Amino acid sequence: MKLRTYIIRRIIMIIPLFFAMSALVFVLIHLAPGDPILTMFGTSAPYNKDIIEVMRQKYGLDKPLYEQYLIWLNMLLHGDLGYSYLNSRPISVMIGERIIPTLELTGSALVITVIVSTILGVTAAVKRNSIIDHIVTSFAVTGRGIPSFWLALILILIFSLYLNWLPVCGRETPGMTFSSPFEYWLDKIKHMILPVICLSSYQIAYLVRLVRASMLDVLNQDYIMTARAKGLKESIVIYKHALRNAILPEVTVIGLYVGYLMAGAAVIETIFAWPGLGSLLVTSVHRREYLLIMDISLIIFIMVLVANLITDIIYAYLDPRIKY
What we know:
The protein is mainly α. The chain has helices spanning 3-31, 36-41, 49-58, 65-77, 91-126, 131-144, 148-162, 181-219, 222-229, 234-246, 248-271, 277-287, 290-318.
């Protein structure tokens, strides 16, 4: 099967899932207590019931739930993401401003996760039962038991408050004038260090053990013994012959990791005041911005779908036996 045909079939299969998931999210956010119009006016402030009713009619909140969902779908099919109740801005503009910071954060975390987990996992497998293997395994076990939000608070306490090495929040230092592009990017990297560590640490701990176990299994295969018997360098045997097959389980998990990244980003972005989609989603949930919640959920859904398609393509490249 050609890759293009495979992608088209996957997208067609995803469409019913999208309708089911979007309908479920739409119902759940409307079942949650709270009212966006009352939030707009302030729950403790006096308000006129007639004005409240007019506002409900203006934003279509007086219609039945299924009709509101169909209106959202119709807007989506016409490329209209809607209008924010509380910010009085087009949602497409708000998402456009937030998606780049989120991609910066999650993309960096993904790259760090792949590189660090692969290096540590391979090293632990090659140095099996050594002190290095014990240290890496201990790190993996510890990392799996530390919640990311707790780790974030500890890192802020140590590196931001006590040592004053890294900034505590934000994407860049506000109001600062940079004399060169190098200083600008250095400032951005400093702001990214703590959030990226918190986002990637939990998954690194899991992938290290996965890569180690997979690598140990591959190193015992006959073709690895044959490669060594031919006199090939150990580095070629490890990284060219063994790693290509040992990394397949990691590629599969990484495809699923994108969903975890987006979920974790909501917590980490909120803690570090990172101006991304995650923090915007948390704010929109508190304010009951129904359209904004749906649109951000849609963006996350698309990101996960694209990540899984890319994973399938990489899988086929690494393993020639797989054909689409």
